[in-house]
Design a protein that fits this description.
This protein has one domain: Deoxyuridine triphosphatase (dUTPase) (Deoxyuridine 5'-Triphosphate Nucleotidohydrolase, Chain A, Distorted Sandwich). Helices cover 5% and strands 39% of the residues. The protein is mainly beta and 144 residues long. The longest helix is centred in the middle third of the chain and has 7 residues. The strands form 3 sheets. It has a 5-stranded antiparallel sheet with strand order 2-3-11-6-8, with no helix packed on it.
């Protein structure tokens, strides 16, 4: 599948790190280094503009290494880029750590996955069929 992209940054296009990667790394597009202060959040621009085919979305996800090593994650993970959006891709990052984190131009800040989605028709009813869990929510199936 082909996805049209405009790259207004001076960074390479998003790319898969390995043969079997599902997500492509995307990079920050910054004139100057940006300090994401501890316990703060910001939108980091990428200089990328996508034309995603109808029936697909781009999911913006955290990079696992950045998450575990630095505590920096995509806040609304996965963030969704709809097929009719044509603006610049921005990544909402949050710094959960106790240390400031500096982001420089070209740093890999997130990954993007192009995925199909299904549109549904919601039907309002008065009751739902029963299931084994019914209303059991968080932790209802056990913790192990």
């Amino acid at each position: 599948m082909k996805v049209n992209i405009i790259n207004k940054s001076n960074n390479s296009l998003p790319e898969y790190a390995t043969l079997y990667s599902s997500g492509m790394d995307i990079r920050a597009f910054l004139e100057n280094p940006f300090v994401l202060e501890k316990k703060s959040r910001a939108i980091i621009k990428t200089g990328l503009y996508l034309e995603i085919p109808e029936g697909f979305e781009a999911q913006v996800r955290s990079r696992s290494g950045l998450s575990i090593k630095k505590g920096v994650v995509v806040l609304n993970s996965p963030g969704t880029i709809d097929s009719d959006y044509r603006g610049e891709v921005g990544v909402i990052l949050i710094n959960h750590s106790e240390d400031d984190f500096t982001i420089s131009n070209g740093d890999r800040i997130a990954q993007i996955v192009i995925a199909p989605y299904t549109k549904v028709n919601l039907v309002e009813v008065n009751s739902l069929s029963h299931s084994h869990r019914d209303g059991g929510g968080f932790g209802s199936t056990g913790i192990n």
